[in-house]
Specification:
CATH architecture: Up-down Bundle
Distance between the termini: 30 Å
CATH superfamily: 23S rRNA-intervening sequence
CATH class: Mainly Alpha
Radius of gyration: 15 Å
Strand content: under 5%
Order of helices and strands: HHHH
CATH topology: de novo design (two linked rop proteins)
Largest sheet: none
Length: 119
């Protein structure tokens, strides 16, 4: 991913999405788990996709709405991560790598929403 004109949230959400895609491949190819894998793939990649739409928001309200969509997807992804870990589909190592990255995205999105609402 080229980094010109792309902020840290864009970069982090893209890198996170790549990790989720790798996890999806492992879950489906090695563990033969398809339902939960598809859920985390959908929500984990939607964080960055929704955030990219922020660049073309048509109003402040639309801007905040798109940030909120990204936040909702990040929160859902956090749920799937916990479920996959607690059901022994992913290792502690995988969980310990993805959980902080997901929580960091949630924190960044919350801060962005708060800032946007205060302006």
């Amino acid at each position: 991913m080229k980094e010109d004109k792309i902020g840290p949230l864009n970069i982090k959400s893209y890198q996170f999405a790549l990790e989720v895609v790798r996890l999806f491949k492992e879950l489906t190819e090695i563990k033969k788990e398809y339902i939960l894998a598809k859920q985390i793939l959908r929500s984990g990649t939607a964080i960055g996709a929704n955030y990219r739409e922020v660049e073309y928001a048509s109003s402040k309200q639309d801007f905040i709405y798109k940030l909120t969509l990204s936040l909702k997807e990040a929160n859902e992804t956090n749920y799937w991560l916990h479920l996959l870990f607690d059901s022994d589909y992913i290792s502690k190592t995988q969980f310990d790598k993805l959980k902080p990255a997901c929580e960091s995205l949630i924190s960044l999105l919350l801060a962005s929403i708060k800032t946007a609402k205060s302006k």
